Amino acid sequence: MVMTLPFEVGVVVRDLASMERFYCEVIGCRAERRSRVPESVGGPAGLGGELEVVRLRVPSGGGASS
Fold it and tell me: Exposed, middle or buried: residue 30 (CB in 10 Å: 0-12, 13-18, 19+)?
């Protein structure tokens, strides 16, 4: 099996609201699911503590799955 498209990509941003607006309004993605990563995981991973995660679905239909 050859993977031709990424399954999932994570981007850490300072301003989540601006990032979400850009991806939804400009690119056409749709927010599918939100979750939080606790500080006990985000801190040791070098991600700055507790994180909010927004999973987006791309216009072609790929993205978050149930």
Answer: middle
Residue 31: which residues within 8 A CB-CB, separation 6 or more? Answer: 20, 24, 54, 55, 56, 57
Does residue 64 carry a pLDDT above 60?
no
30: its two tokens: 């749709």
Q: What is the DSSP letter of 44?
A: T
Contacts of 59 (CB under 8 A, 6+ apart): 27, 28, 29
Q: What is the pLDDT of residues 20-52, one digit of tens each?
A: 999 999 999 999 999 988 888 877 777 778 888
